[in-house]
Structure formats: C-alpha cells, structure tokens
User: Fold these one by one.
Assistant:
Number 1:
Amino acid sequence: MDALKAFDGNYWKTLFDSRIGKTTWPYGSGVWSKKEWVLPEIDSDDIVSAFEGNSNMFWAERFGKQLVGMNDLWVKHCGISHTGSFKDLGMTVLVSQVNRLRKMGRPVVGVGCASTGDTSAALSAYCASAGIPSIVFLPANKISMAQLVQPIANGAFVLSLDTDFDGCMQLVREVTAELPIYLANSLNSLRLEGQKTAAIEILQQFDWEVPDWVIVPGGNLGNIYAFYKGFHMCKELGLVDRIPRLVCAQAANANPLYLHFKSGWSNFSPVKAQTTFASAIQIGDPVSIDRAVYALKNSNGIVEEATEEELMDAMAQADATGMFICPHTGVALTALVKLRNSGVIQPTDRTVVVSTAHGLKFTQSKIDYHSKAIPEMACRLANPPVNVKADFGSVMDVLKTYLLSKESKQ
Ligand SMILES: Cc1ncc(COP(=O)(O)O)c(C=O)c1O
Ligand SMILES: N[C@@H](CCOP(=O)(O)O)C(=O)O
C-alpha cells in the first residue's frame, strides 16, 4: 500500500480508465487492467487470462420502478463471464501464480478445489487454458448439470463425493496438506485479489461516484470481503471519499452468517446447510467467516436471508423484467425487497445488486418453478407453455384469448 500511495487517486483513476476496452495484453482483462493492485510482480507472459471482468452494469429499470419503487437500481452481471460466474475474476490470478511457480520449477503437480460448482468450473477452464492439471472435489448430486459438465468437458479430474460442500472442503484441505496440489479455494487470498476488482469496476461504471448500497449473495464468504477490500483500497488510495454500505444475502436454508449477525456478532456457530435452490451457497461452515464479519463491521453492513419461495419468486420477477438470473441473485434481490420494505434502503438510494452467476447454469430450478413442480411452493409467477393443435383456427383462438386477457390487465 505504501508503494501504491506514491501515486494519487487521479493517477490511478486515469490509468485504470485508459485501459477499459483495450486488447493490449493483459489490460483487456477487468482484473489485469488493475495489475498494479492485484499481483504487480508477475510477468505478463505468465498470466492466464480469458479477458474476464468488465461485466455489464444493467439498469434494472422495470424491476426497480415496478417492484421496489426505485429508479437507481442496478444489477452488476458478474455471471456474464467466461465460465458463467464471478469466480473467473479470482481464478485468473490464482492460476497465473501457479503457472509462474511451475515455470520456476516449483513442485506443483496440479491445482485442487472443493466446489459447489462455480469454483470448479472456473478452475478447470483456466487450468485447461494453461495446460495445468486440475482436481475438483464435488458433493454428489448437489450441483447443477451445467456446473458438473464444465470441469468434465475441460478435462479436470472430477471426484464425486458422498458428502456436502463442507465435507468436500475439509477433505481438500487435508489432501492438499499431504500432496503437492495447490489449493484454489478462497482460503487462498490470491482469489480475493482478483475478485476485489469487481468493486473497482462498479466505481468506474458510475464515473467514480460511490453507490449507497451493494448487495452480494454469500456462501463461503470470500466475495463479500473481496468487495469490501476493493472499495476500501479505492478510499485509502484517494480515488473516492467513502465506501458503500454492504449487504450480504444468504439462503435461509444455509444462513450461518445471518444467524451470527442477528445474535449481535456473538459466538459464531456453523450450521448443517440444508438443500436450497441457491445450491452454490449451500454452505454451513464458511471458511471466510472472519473476513466477512470484518467487512460488514467496517462498512456499516447488514445480513439478510431469503426463504426458498422468496428467492424463487424474486428470480422469476427479475426474469420477467428481461434478466435471466441465477437463484443466488434471487437471494440478493430478496434482501433488497426486505430492506426497502423496512425503510432501511430509501427509494432514491443508488443500489447495486451483484449477480454472481448466469441463469443458464441453473435452468433446472427455472424449469421446476415454471412447471409448478416444487412441492409446497405456489410458483405464483409460473409461465408454462400452452399446448395448441397446429392448425390456424386453434392458434387464433388461443391468441385471441391471450391478447384479450393482456388488454384487460392494461
Ligand atoms: C453463484 C454463486 N453465488 C454466490 C456465491 C457466494 O460467494 P462466496 O462463497 O464467496 O460467499 C458462490 C460461491 O460460493 C456462487 O457460486
Ligand atoms: N460457491 C463456491 C464454493 C467455494 O467457494 P470458494 O470461493 O472458497 O472457492 C463454488 O462455486 O464452489
């Protein structure tokens, strides 16, 4: 930090803004365009990058105006990315460092992680890009098919384990302590050095004006800390004069941080994570609990939770306004709705909801919802297809009925 403070805030803003949209290696990456803040000593030839980052800041106009009475609501689409989740931001840094170590002759035979799907997808793709073996520990039958096929297709050694994520996390820590396999989970802070750049991007996209709130879904809890670190570095280095209030949103079925927050940050206790459609945050014993508590305490932060019906309805509502989000973004949107309803977030507050994965990785949850195939869930926004005989008369009848019903709702 002392070395970085040799340059003032305007220097850094000008430097970072000058690199947006360029293809000069490695600055076309949203991560490596901040190389001096991420991993300054690495040789650019050692960097493994898919030009990740620079994700869309979507103005959620209809969701904001119609559902929460806000005009300044934005969704940061970190899931519109190389492997479909924000994990690419951290994985480019970690795999680049492993690439550098192997070129130096260090005995790293491969890279391993435990995963609820997105970390393993990112790890396998970046390792395949660099020709580095990857080994992924996955909880059997607890991740989406899209998330499972990614490491398989990218050539990872895929272990399907009869336990949950927390069990996989324990095993990968034990194994990487015994074998020369480099651990890729967010225990390794290199991941967070990459993920923090999404916070800097948010400030860039608002022309360095600071939003009032940033809402992030939380599981292993590295990402909420990464956002805090990115905003805090911008404040400490003089790019901005404050940081946003952070909100970490959890699924009620896997909510150890939420319970800790509601207890007034008294003794933390892991929970046994229950099944949730937000499967990537089905985590009961998060490795970054201390980092997350630090981030929330130092950003006047809040933790909220979402039931299964709340997160699924929020996902359906967002999709009906033109997005195609994952269930985890539904968790974050539910937190927004609750904080608006309680008056904590004001109608004019500039608010960013971080979307952490693309909805295309979680289509089964949407199919179940729109098929009304979820026991004890109303699925009140279900929009099932209409089966019609393939003749002009039948189609016209159905369409007239549909159009009249739309007209009656105008
Ligand atoms: C899609 C998605 N959203 C949110 C999260 C939560 O991020 P973190 O584990 O850093 O809290 C994860 C991973 O855990 C994820 O895969
Ligand atoms: N949701 C994560 C769980 C592991 O998180 P990490 O940040 O520690 O890698 C995943 O996608 O596997």
Number 2:
Amino acid sequence: MASEARSGRPLSPKFSETIENNLFMRKVIPSPTRSRNSPKVNEDNIRRSLEEISREIKDIEDFITVTENIIRSERERDRELYARERRRKADEKRGKISDEDRIIINNKENKAPTAIKQSPVLSRKNSQKSPSFKINSYKVKKAKPGSPKFLKSKLYFRNGKIGCADAEQSSTSNIESTHALIKHILKYENEKPLVSLESVEKVLSQEPEEQVGRAIENGHASESNANEKGSLDLPDLVPSPARTNEEGINGNNAKYIDLEFSGSPEVTNEDPQQQARKDSLQNRIIDKTENVEEEMNTQEIENLDNEEQKFVREQVHHLVRRFTARTNKMRSRIEMPPTPSSSSSPSPPPPHQSIEALKIDTLDTKVSTRNIFQADNQSIRTPGKFVCPTFCGGGRNDDVLDPQGKVYIYWLCVVSLSFLYNAWVIPLRSSFPFQTEENQDIWLALDTCADLIYLFDVLFFKHRVMYLFEGFWVKDRKLTRKNYMRKLQFKLDIISMIPLDLLYLKYGRQAVYFRFPRLLKIQTFWEVFKLIDRVMASPHFVRVAKTMTYMLYMIHLTACAYYAYSAYQGLGTNRWVFSGKGHPYVRCFAFATKTATSIGKNPKPEKEGELVFMTSAWLMGVFVFALLIGQIRDIISTATRTQSEYRQLEDETLEYMRRQNLPINLQRRVKGWFKFTWDQQRTLDESHILDSLPANLKTDIALSVHIQTLSKVQLFADCEDALLRELVLKLRSVTFLAGDYVCRKGEVGKEMYIIKLGQVQVMGGPNNDEVLATLCEGSVFGEISLLAINGAEGNRRTADVRSRGFSNLFVLSKSDLNEAIVYYPNAQAILKKRARSLMRKNAAREREEARRNASREADVVIGNPTRPNTPPKLLKTVIQALPEESPAAMLLTRGSKRNKKRRETLTDTEESKNEDSLRGSKNEMIAQQTKCTVENERRALSPDLLSSIEDELKNQNKLINLTDSEKALIMSTNDPNEHQSSTSNANLPKN
Ligand SMILES: Nc1ncnc2c1ncn2[C@@H]1O[C@@H]2COP(=O)(O)O[C@H]2[C@H]1O
C-alpha cells in the first residue's frame, strides 16, 4: 500500500483508490448489521470481532502514518524540483549556461523530453503509469558485447535517477552501461544534433498546453500517442550516414516525438538563419514549458493539500473515532473482571473513563488508536484539588497502589504495629502506674511516632489504593480518593486521628485515655491479617497468630482492669485484690490468665464488685477460649484434611481386602500403590481440587503443574499450543506398580498414555519376553490402536507394555483424543506417521523372527532325523529269549533303580554277555557282530547310555570301569566263562 502510494503520482485518486480497495477500510465502514449487534451474539464471536477491529484500527493507523509521510515527502520534492527547474530556466534564459553544462542539460533534457517531461508533477504522473522514460536508443547490429552499441539501449529517467534500460535485462552493470551510453551520446552529439529542428517544430505545432492538459487528465494520454509503451523516445542517435532526420520521423521511429535540443556553440557549420530559427524555437519551448509548468505545479501542490488529502485524512480519522468508540463499548460489555492475581497486569479503565477518553481530540494528525487506548488510562489529567495536591501527586495515576502488592502490605504492617502499640499501651498506661514524670517524654515521643504513622497512612497511602469497579481496576487517583472517602474506614481513620491529646494541657499527661480514639484504626489490623492470609504460603500460621493475639489482648485487658480495680479498692486491702507486691503487670497478667482459662486457683472474690469482675472475666474466658480452641481445631483440621482423607481411604481399602481374604501379595501391591500415589501427588484425586475454577484458570494451573512433563512431549512441541491447552485438562493421572501391564497385545485400545514419571517397556518377541523399547518421561504410547490405521482390526494393541518400576502416567481417552485432534491435522499427521513407522518396524521384526524360526525348523529336519521309538526287532527277540527273571532281561526291560547311568552301562555289558552266552560257543565273530547289532539297536532305546559309552570309548580310549557290584551282578547271572567273555566284550573298544 505504501509503495503504491509512493509511486503513484496523482495522489488524490490513488488515495481514494487505496482506501476503497483496502479490505480493512471496507470493514471499517460499519454496516447496519454490524452496528445492530444483538445481545444474544455469541461471546466468542464478539471477542473475535473485537480483535479484528483492533487489528483494523492498527492498520488504519499505519495507513495514515505512511500516507502522510508520503504526502509530505512528495510535496517537499515537488517544491524542490520546481525551484530547481525554475532556477535552471532562468539561467538558461539569461544564456549563462556554460558549454559543459549545456551538454549535461541536453542529456538531462533527453531523460524527459519536451517541456512536458520537465514538469515534476507530470514526471510523477508518468512514472506512475509507466515507470520510466526512454529517451534514447541505439540500434546498431553486430556490436561487440558490452559495448554501448551492443546495448542498443535507451536511457530512462525513473524516480530521479538515470539508467540504462537494457542493462536491467542483461546481466551487465547498470551504472557501467549508463556511463558508457552517456559517453557515447556526448561523443556523437558534436557530430550530429541530438534532436532535429523538424521534430521540435512538429511538437510545437501540437500545442504543448493541450498535451499537458491531456497528460494530466488522462495520465499520459499524450505520451501514449507518441509511444504505446508510455515512453517518450528520441530517435536513434547512432550516426548513420543512411539515416536522415526525415527517417527519424517517418521511419521506424515515426512514433517518437523528435526534438532537437541544440544551441550548442560547437555546431558552427549552421547558417545564421537556421541559428535564429533555432533560438526562437528554443525560446518558445522554454516559455511555454515554464508557463504550463508553473501553473501545474502550483495547482497540484495546493490541490494536494487542500482537497483530497484533507478529505481522506478526515474520513479516516472519523472512522477511527467511530471504531474506537465501538470497540470500547463492546469491551466494556464483555470484558471479564480480572482475577486478583492478574491485578498487576495493565488493566482497562472503567467504562465511564473510556467514554471520557473518546473526548480526545482525534483531529490531531498524529493521533493513533494506541494513543486513544493509552488515554483511557489517563483520562483525567487535572491535578487533584482535594487532599494534599502536592504530596499526593494530584491527579496523576502512575503511582496508585496495588491492594495486594508488597508495598501496601508492608505499609499496613507498620500501621498495624502502631495500632497495636496504642491498643496495648493506652489501657496499660491508663491503669498501671507506668507513666512517671521521668519517662513521660519517651511516651510522648512514641505516641507522636504512632500518630504520624496514622497521618501518613491517610495522606499518602489509603487514598491511592486502586479498587475494582464493575470488573475493572480503577487506577485514577481522583477516583481512588473518592472511593476511599466514601468508605467507613475513612471516617474511622479521621476520628482515630482527632488530637484529643491536646486536652493533656488541661487534664495533664496522665489522662492517656484521651488517646482511646486511636483504637479505631482496628480496621487496618484486620486488613493486614486478611492480606497476609492470602499471600502467605501457609495461612494456618497467620490464623493461629491472629487468634492468639486476640486471646492475649483479652488477658491484657483483664490484667489492666484487675489492677485498676485493685488500685481503686486499695492495693492489698483484702485477699482478692492485688497485694502490691512484685511486678504489678506480671502479677496481674498471671491473675488474669488463671481467671480466663480457669486454670489454677485464684483467691475468692469477697465483695460484690469483685464478684462482678470475676464473673465477667470467667464469661469472657469461656467465650474466648471456646472460640480459640474451635478455631485452632478448624485450622489444624483444614491443614490435615487431605491427609486424613487419604489415610481413611487407605485403611478402608486394606480392611476390605483383609475381610475378603485376598492374597497377601495383592494387599501389599495395593499398599504400595497408596504410598507411591500419596508421595507423588499428596492427594489421591487431583482432578476434583480445581473443580470450582473456571476452565481457563484450570487450564493455566494444569499447564503450570505439568509443564515439565508436557514440554518433553514431542507431539506438543511440534504442534500448536492450542492443542496442548485443549488436552491438558483431559489428562488423568494413573499410577502403575513395578511389573504391572499398562496394556496387553490384542486388547482393544481405548486410551493412550504419556509417561509422567518412571519408565515402561514395550514387550515383543515370540514369547513376549523381549524388550522392544524402553520409554521414559515424556514418551507417548498406545496411540496405534486409537488411530485405527488398519481399519476395524486396527483398534487392537500391537504390543504388551509393562511398567518397569513404579510409574505415573497421563491417560488420554480415545474420545478425548479424537475430539481434540480433529481440529489439529498436524498433530493427527504426526501421530499417524509415528504409528505407521512403529507398525512397519514391528512388522519387519516379526518377519525376521518368522524367517529365523523357519530356518531353525529346517535345520532339525536335515540334521537330526528322529529315531523310531519302537524297540528294534532283534532286541525284542533277545529279550524274549532271556529268562524273564534274569537281571539282564530286567535291565533291558526296566532299567536300574539305583544309578541309572551306571546301570545302563551295566545292562549294556550284561547284554553283550547275554548275547555271547546265547550264541554259546559259536565263533567270536558272529558274537561280536550280534553284540554290535544289539548295541546299535539299543541305542534307540537309551541313546544317552550308548552315547556315553561311545564317548568314553572314543574320547578316552580306555576300558569302561564297571563297579564291583555290577560285575558281580553280571557274574551271578552268567557262568564264569561267559562273564569272562562278557567282561572282555564290555571292555572292548567300540570301534
Ligand atoms: N517397536 C515399538 N517401539 C516402541 N513403541 C512401540 C513399539 N511397538 C508398539 N509400541 C507402542 O506400544 C503401544 C501398544 O499399544 P498400541 O498398539 O495402541 O500402541 C503401541 C505403541 O504406542
């Protein structure tokens, strides 16, 4: 917008165009529907429109500033150009131009040919429509690259700068090209005039005034005639013998206005007639140009100032005013009262102040909406005329006090101390003989200090405290003062300062009771406790302290009264009154304490007056102590309520489990859960704590509490903050014990999780005992099944997730997630991307596992053929052949009961023996063969035995050592010969 306005010459039409074209201006003009806002309009919509309006007003403000700057700078430039031009023309007229200057002017003239082009006003018009004037051109073919001819260029004049048109399109440096081109022009200018006389005549015959008028009206209409591109070009300056002036007009360049600006003294070969003609033409040109130019310039500049500019400015200011008023009205209607905690932030003024703010003179050109809003806060600038204009800063509003600010609270503490001084000392000095002639001055000084504090409080502090009015903090000093003066507190403060002490003059300084009005400052004392209660980390202490102060003060008053009564009756006149022995205050205070608390024995009252005193003291004691004890109980119970609730719940749960006879282990886990949850949160259910707060505050609190965890969640870091705000209140906190499964593979997923504390393990593998990943604080899991990427089947958990130690997780339900995420496509995309990548990873892992299993199975088939389970036929035959009860048969059929391995070895040996015996005396070869066969066949039944024998024989290459009992067993079954042979057989190496 700014650039448009800057480049546009006819500022007024451009201005109005800009305004009309701008969206914000269209919005600014209030439509009937807009102004007729129904009260039922949704608050959100109002808010949004309010924000929009604020933005628009800001835009208008910028718009005004920019356009005003443009107007100013344009005007200055116009004036400057105009003055320069006039000076130059005057010089020219007087023929004072040096030759050198003439050449430069010549070229300058060429930048904006004819008188028309010299008009700054017109130049701007031109530059608006066509940004450049092409004033020269080269049309030489086959020129060297880089040479001015090659450029075939035209000089242009744009925004006060000269340049070479073609250089812009080529990569050549514009400055270099322009320089070269100018040099070239100057070189040939001596040989041939730049502009022919005929061209000049032609232009002049077209009535320049007309051209000017048209140019102004139509924005270069005259130039368009000459050049469709809107440029005013001179004929080719390259000296070409074939080329004549006529060609310049009628040939290719016929559309150009050819002007000859000569008069160069170097052109000496002209005849005097021609010279005279040239001079007269030149003069005509200059005269006409000057007249037109002068007229135009003056008119333009004045018009600029007087009409459009003013109109536009006024219009815009008017709109700004209207919109500011509307905005303030709307704001006053919808703005929520700030919470006490936000009071320190700059707050808007009460509505009536806003209205006053609107009285600001918006006609000031520098006014801005920002200023208006600032003015809202400073609407009243007149100095205060009421209380202490000098000290109180009059009507300034920059030093109001925040009622919850530190300065004010500290000051209230000081005032409270002086109140307490008065409250304790006035009864004390009135009853006890503590004010003597010697210390009177000290008391007087202390009294004066306390009084000064009271005075300062009223003069400098109380009336500056800002207050809430219809939801707005009122910060105006005049209003805060009025507010203070309206209150009862002001009246009490004034009464408490009444200098009744002056009566000392009449009644003497002993009459301290004249200071009793000072006790009316008690409101400040209450206020300070109230404020400290709010700002202290543990308000229970403040409450207990307050109650204790009351109690002690009652006892103090009783002590004073007791002493006064005793003094009245006469010290030590009976057993009840104060005896006068010891420190009077300490004794009387002890008496009063015993009476009030009914602890300890006090002397019995004897007189009626004493009885009345005691009765009232007892009553007060009962009342005050009942109150005190009740309060302290409340305070303590409030402080420990959450803990006792937790204890109660834990006890009930454990009791229930005991009654149900649940396993001890389970009970222990539940106990662990209670302990861990309490340690972590100091409450069992956080969610209900903030129930009573509005949603925005709840969100803020939840964000502050969980920010540490949530800041680690990548999902939220990558997405808008709004998503986090939306979800934070929906997060539920859950605790898992060590080894607990958070979710199981194949379950339907209904929640996703964010790890708040601890670690979880994602389990996988064929037996779900392989840890695929360990996730820690800030990690998100359980989202795959929620997103249901794989259609209906996709809502199943893809892995087991187990808590590694104790872990605390945020749970987000599927519905909550879906509800929120639907508006955040970014987050959706991130979650889906992550889910897909996890799924791909899992799929790849599962494929790999399947492949490994398959290859393992294949190995078994090839490498380990299974042996038949049925005993071989030969063995069956042998067993049948053996006597049933023989140890060999028993061994073969049942095996040993003692040492299996040894027995089997034995059986093996025996069997060999039996085989031998079976074969009898048949040749050894056959027996051996048989034995081997049997052995081979037995291997099927007891591979361990056989292999162990084999191993022993192979590896150690020694005889198998049978135990004696085994040998005996074998020998007892078979004859000695057989035994021999069997032993030898048994000892045979297998191979
Ligand atoms: N290989 C893995 N690495 C990390 N996390 C995983 C992996 N596989 C599954 N998960 C997470 O474990 C979750 C189990 O439940 P979901 O399938 O809903 O979502 C799953 C993922 O968030």
Number 3:
Amino acid sequence: MTSAATWTSFIKSIASYNGDLSSLTAPPFILSPTSLVEYSQYWSEHVDLLLEPNFIKKIDNEPIELTRMIAVTKWFISTLKSQYCSRNETLGGEKKPLNPFLGEIFVGKWDDNSINKNLGETILISEQVSHHPPITAYAVENKLNNTILEGYNGVRASMSSTALNVKQFGHALLEFRNLNENYLITLPPLHIEGILAFSPFVELEQKSIIQSSAGYYTIIEYTGRGYFSGKKNSFKARIFKNFNDSKKKENALYTISGQWSEKSTISKGSSTPSSSKDEIFFDALNNKPQHLTVKSIDDQHPLESRKAWLNVANAIRIGDYDLIHSEKSKLENNQRDLRKIEEKNNSKWSRRWFDEIDYSKFNNNDNSLENDIFINLSKLAHLSIKNVASGVDDSSSKNDDVDTMLHWRFVPENFDNETEIKI
Ligand SMILES: CCC(=O)OC[C@H](C)CC[C@H]1O[C@H]2C[C@H]3[C@@H]4CC=C5C[C@@H](O)CC[C@]5(C)[C@H]4CC[C@]3(C)[C@H]2[C@@H]1C
C-alpha cells in the first residue's frame, strides 16, 4: 500500500479519536525515533537567554525587575521554535514521538565550551513520572548561577475534522535563587495542522502567561496562518505591571509581536511594534539552538531513553514495520511484567528525582503554604492550582469538575544522591 493510501486509512482510523495519543498505532513513516521524554531539552536550547536575568544591570528610569521580565519573556519566546518546530527541521515534518515507559529517563548537559559564555555547566534531568496518562517531569539546573527551571507536562488530545487539538497540562517554575525572584510559566494549547495534507505541523493557539514574583505579568496570545495576521506561528506579547493592569491593553508597559519561529520586535507601551522601525526582540532564524551533550549509548543506564529505545529507533529509521512492532512489543511486554510484579508485591514504581505533591492537603492556615512559590505565583496570576489545563484562571467554570491538586516537583537532594546515573 502506498504511504499516501496508508496515511488516508490512518486518518480515517482516528476520525472518531479522543484521548490518549499513545493508543494510536500510526504508520511507520509518521513515527519519530525520539521519545517524548527528550522534549524537555527544548526548554533550554538558548542557555544564555535562560541565565541572562542573573547578569542584568539596572537601566535608568526602569525597575530592574521589569528589565528582567523582558529578558525572561525573550527566553520563553526563544524556546518555542525548538519545542514545536524541531521535528520539521530534522524529520521533514511533525512526527509521533515514542511513548515513554514509566521511569524512562533522559539526562544531558550544556557545558561551557558549547556556549563559551562562562555560564558554567547546565544540566537537564527528565523523567517519565506517569505512563497513564503520559507525564514528563524535568529540571534544568545551573549551579554556578544558582538558577533552576523545573516543570512537568502532560497532554490530552482530540480530533476535529481537520486537526488534532491538544491541551497541555502542567507548568514551569523558573527560580533565580541569587536574585530571590521566580516566575511561573503556563503552556499554550496547540493543534496539529496539515494532517489531511499529509504534512503535519504544530500551531500554537489561545494564550499562555508568565507571572513574576515581583508582580510583573506577561500575556502571550498566539495566532497562525489564516488569522488576522496571516502569518504562521504569530504571537503578540504584552508586559504589564501586574495581573489587574492586564485587563486593559492600553496599560501595557511593552508590546512584542511577530513570529516565534522567525522574527519579532518590541516597542514601549501598548502600540503594536512595526517590523521596520522598531527594535528586533528575538530572531529565531539567526540564533541557532544550543544542543545539549548526551553520553554515548554504551555509557548509558538501561533506563536511559536512547539506550532503552535503541532497537526500536533503528527499526523506525529503516522503516521496517515488522521490526518496529516486534522490538516495541519486547519493551512493552517487559513493562507489563514489571507492573504485574509490582501488583503482586503490592509495591509501585518509585520515582527517581520527582515527587507528586498534593496541594489540597495545604489549607490556608498551614504555614508551609506561604513559602510555596507555585501557590504564591498562581495567586498573583489568579490561576487555578487544580489539575485543570495549564493557564486556566481560578474563576473559570472549568474548575468545577476537577478536585485534585497534584503537581510534580523536582527533589534536588534525590538527584544529588544519585549513584547510578551520570550526566
Ligand atoms: C493524531 C494522528 C497522529 O498521530 O498524527 C501524527 C502527527 C504527527 C500528530 C500527532 C503528534 O504530533 C506530535 C507533536 C507533539 C507535541 C510537540 C511539542 C510539545 C512541547 C513539549 O514541551 C511537551 C510535549 C508537546 C506538547 C508534544 C506532545 C505530543 C505531540 C502533540 C505529538 C502528537 C502525538
């Protein structure tokens, strides 16, 4: 069967599809040899921008916290091309990632000489903390500058007539511990366009926010081709003094607009910057991503993603469907056996470097609440702390049918005490 015919039959098979993406058996040519647990690296392919707020000096008539919020917004915009376009660049289009098994890990580092900015070593720690539903937790840590980004991500998907709609769950927390300043970052919904046209690609939609502990609040609105801007991967970001000011666009202190996969410009105030006369904010075409260094497969632990999936990834690369199926089945059967043993022993897989924190246990008079940066930043941004889709505000009716408040948190001492896995 030609791949176009296979693709058409595949599209028919998912027409009435809703829910867990991993249950899809996609044809081999749409499969990526990379596991979803590796996608955490896309948060830090511009390490210099991630760490920049540590080096900002106060400029005249502007609070330094505002200058830092502009820098954090620039770093966040710089992550989007890697997050959502890297498969187009390397594989010719969006692909279906390998579905990580419970406990699958991915570690790597951006060492000094790769970015030669005397920033010190930055490490990536990523762990599949849940298989049903798939949830990846991650941390990016730079000890020299006492800076850490941690977060987790889960997705829920549904098919419309022409696109796959994806809601993201989770959030990211960026902590500058030398500055005693931190940020909450929410994740935008997205949809996969071009599925019927047999060349799928991601387009972001609606909005995501960045909330600073200093009060500053950035809202980023996404549009794509066919919207008023007409260009794919478009966005408009507005930086406000705080959440309440964001109710009126004219309160914006800065406005940034353009394409997150190409160029964007920035101007003071609430007017939309023009690409001609205003200052370039970020140019994704001329800022190549900094790729992290990963140990060779021989030096990897069996739980490390590229070692665990090696045979499946090689089968995908040669497009041998039967071999993909047989190698994948070996790995999945091994996982099923592990779960059966755990069930028999009434034990469960222990997460290595992350803990699931139940925030519903904290009540308002519990003193451990005020030091939790997620609680404080969510309050400033008026965001729900329930397990609703990322960025849902605390007054939304979407909260009514969700009660749980379970969020994954990095446990640095677990990683510091790690003996088996080397970066
Ligand atoms: C639905 C039919 C089907 O399987 O078609 C295959 C198509 C390639 C579309 C489905 C897959 O598209 C992939 C895109 C993936 C997202 C890309 C980037 C990110 C950001 C990262 O920080 C977190 C994960 C996330 C949201 C990926 C989640 C999984 C996505 C949607 C893949 C789809 C299975």
Number 4:
Amino acid sequence: FHLGMFEIGKPLGKGKFGRVYLAREREHKFVCALKVLYKSELQQNRAEIQVRREIEIQSNLRHPNVLKLYGHFHDSKRIFLILEFAGQGELYKHLRKAQRFPERKAAQYIAQMACALRYLHRKHVIHRDIKPENILVGIHGEIKISDFGWSVHAPGNRRKTYCGTLDYLPPEMIKPGSSDNSYDEKVDLWALGVLMYEFLVGEAPFEDSPIMTTRRIVNRDMTIPSYVSAEARDLLKKLLVVDPRGRLPLKKVQQHPWVTKHCQ
Ligand SMILES: CC(C)CCNC(=O)Cn1cc(-c2ccc3c(-c4nc5ccccc5[nH]4)n[nH]c3c2)cn1
C-alpha cells in the first residue's frame, strides 16, 4: 500500500481522532472512506493501544449493518484506515433534519441494530457506545454501526472514566461506587432502548445531568409522549429496565410486534 494508490476526495467528517476523506483506489476504482490518524496525536492521548484494539476488533467483523474496515497501513507519521464508504452519510444528520423518524423507519432501524448487535454479541464484542453519532447510512438506506472506540470483549469492566455523553450509559455503568464494575452485553440493550426513544422522540430520554442520572437508576418513569404508539411504548419499557437481567433479549426484540409489524 502507499497513498499514491488512492485519489483523495472531499473530507467526509472528523472522527474522534483524525479526519476521514472520500477516496478512490486507482487500479480498481474502488470507492472508500480513508481515515487518517496522526501517530503523534495518538501518543499524546495515549490512544495507540485503543486504536490497535479497535483495528483488531473491526478487521474481523463482517456484517451488512457493521461498517467494514477493509485494511490499514501507515507511514512514519500517520496511520491510514480503509473504511467502507456509507453512501447516505451520518444517521444523526438525518435524525436532526427529520426531528424524529416515523415509526416504520424507526422499527426498521431498530431491527437492523438488533441484527448487528446479535452478531457482535455472538463474537463477544460489546459495543458500549451505541448512539446516532456512531451510526452511518448505506446507499440503500441500511444502517451501519461504526466507531468501535469503546467496544470491548465481554465481559468488560469499567477501567477508564467514560468521556462522552452519559445519555446512553445504563445504570450499572454509572452507579457510583458500585463494587463489581463488571457488566456484560446487556449494556447494549439499554443503549438500544435509548436509541429507539431518540428515533421516536428526537431527544434522549434521560438528559445528561446528575439528578436525571440518579432518576435513571431509581428508574422514575421517563416521559414517553402520547404520539408514541402502544407497541413502541411496550418495547421501550422492556429495554429501559434498570436491572440488566430484566432487559428484553435481542431475539425477542426482533420478534416484538412493534418490529415485526413494520418489517418484511
Ligand atoms: C481505529 C479504527 C478501527 C477505527 C475505525 N472506525 C472509525 O474510524 C470510525 N469512523 C468512521 C468514520 C466515517 C465517517 C464518515 C463516513 C462515510 C460517509 N459517507 C458519507 C456520505 C455523505 C456525506 C458524508 C459521508 N460520510 N462513509 N464512511 C465513513 C466513515 C469516522 N470515524
């Protein structure tokens, strides 16, 4: 590999570290998203290990709803990631533009997320950072989970403090001083519930504040607007359960009436 083999196009956005460009590989005219990470920046943030782990995790994943990492290469200063190009870009931009999604579209997205998460969990990968900002949309409108920056091989334990919005974190990951800081794949079920709420309502159910966080722990009822259908309400209540063991398993999510009614 060397950069010469790629024609670099417009910037596609800024990831956590580095920038992403539309790129086309010269020989086969293969279009991709080329992400450039600076080694110096990774060193400053002590992120090399994490990036190496992300590369390791994402290189072995093959699923239509998971963004592919085709390969990577580096020169003295930079690491280059050859990522799948998602033809319709970032999901959160679609969500902001639409304010909230119709239930049919939300149900199709949740079904695809459940499918992707079942695949990840079978490979003992917990994503841990499911939110609209980490989801892209393919050319046929299908969604693709990207950015495995916080994924771990299950069971994980909370070593580092989490930097980012708390909106999607389940109670077991934020309960202050909880002795066993181990958790498992069920953290992604909570996040799936928060994602579903945000698709239907246009904002997260528990805003990012300590009081709301404690309310989340005691599970004071979040407010679900009246325009949300009874079936959607039912599924939300079965995912946003404080006790991880009480959350609806992904197989049951795919079989839930709200999902089956709108899919296939
Ligand atoms: C360490 C390594 C394994 C991390 C791999 N994961 C990432 O780098 C996460 N990431 C993906 C991207 C990204 C951003 C944008 C796109 C796009 C894309 N398509 C677009 C279409 C229209 C407008 C904007 C678009 N961005 N396709 N693929 C992308 C990939 C940015 N960061």
